[in-house]
Amino acid sequence: xxxxxxxxxxxVVDMQNGxxxxxxxxxxxxxxxxxxxxxxxxxxxxxxxAWLVYTRDVHPPGQFDDAHYYDEFEQxxxxxxxxxxxxxxxxxxPADEADLVVEKHTYDxxxxxxxxxxxxxxxxxxxxxxxxxxxxCVLHTGGSAGIRDFRPLMVDDCIGAIExxxxxYALDHxxxxxxxxxxxxxxxxxxTK
Length: 193
Known about the structure:
It is built from 7 helices and 8 strands. By secondary structure, the chain is of the alpha/beta class. The radius of gyration is 16 Å and the shape is globular. Keywords: Hydrolase.
């Protein structure tokens, strides 16, 4: 699959210490396992001149104190608190100054963030989506991209999950409803450099 770098962004979802490092409170080996494949994908995309976006799931400590129903801390326990080591992107995937880092407070990277406007201002319409967790933030971000008329390309071998069946479910659902499933080796960035 050939992609035009000027209109393509690689969206790296929530590859943070809290999810990807063995000392993280919501560590999943499947999330750690995709660090190297994502790093290789980022390097190829950056070399070709594609855009890079990193999302960080970040929660202020009292975010859900007044919640009526939606409370991630009740579901997952306190995690990736604002300013914490857990909230930082893992060392193996450093962001450059030119990359956009989106702080989000829920599963969907488009919800109450600058992401959609930033992409539209640059004429980006293809989103190469990778990261973690497959059936949570990756799935919700991909679905939100699709309903906003971006083309979500979900990178099978660069998406982490807690369980293999979560990964399979998320990608089956994405392909059926809003996106395309690809492997990293099938992606070719037509270099602009």
